[in-house]
Design a protein that fits this description.
By secondary structure, this protein is an alpha/beta fold. The chain has four helices and eight strands. Helix 3 links the parallel strand 6 and strand 7. The protein starts with a strand and ends with a helix. Bound molecules: zinc ion.
Length: about 180
Amino acid sequence: MKSLIIGAGHGGSDSGAVGNGFIERDLAIEFRNLLVSDLKKLSVNCIVDPDSNKLADSLPYFKKYFKPDSINVDIHWNAGPPAATGTEVLINTQSTPFEKQLGGKIAEAIATILNIKNRGLKTELQSARGSLGWMKQPGRNYIIEMCFISNKTDMEKYMGKKPELAKAIANILFEAVKQ
Ligand SMILES: [Zn+2]
């Protein structure tokens, strides 16, 4: 079984993006907790930063766990103009069919369950920030940009569906760690 690292994209003094009364850090920590608890029910142990509610940067903690075959998932929200909508998943620039398939399944599940646009798979260079520490680690690196914190409808849909979404992504990751 491959090891599975799950990060909440932001923590502590790093709040991430804010919008519509939401704070990205709090959303990411909450979803991380839902996901890890659903994975536990499937007997999948995740590597989670024990102090991630407080740590502004969890990468130094995770460093020793990143392995060439580990699956490393960091949870984020996108932000943009009010009309920007949809989900996207970042994958490694040099990615294998396995990596593309897993990223595609995650993006598809989010788009279907939330009924929002699937913006598809992107690489680090195609992301808003261009360079991301998480994407430079050994292993199969994924950054989930769940939806737009700046979009009211995206957030309403997310709030109504987060337990279902966590369960669906847990199932996808469960299948992937076994492969
Ligand atoms: Zn973020």
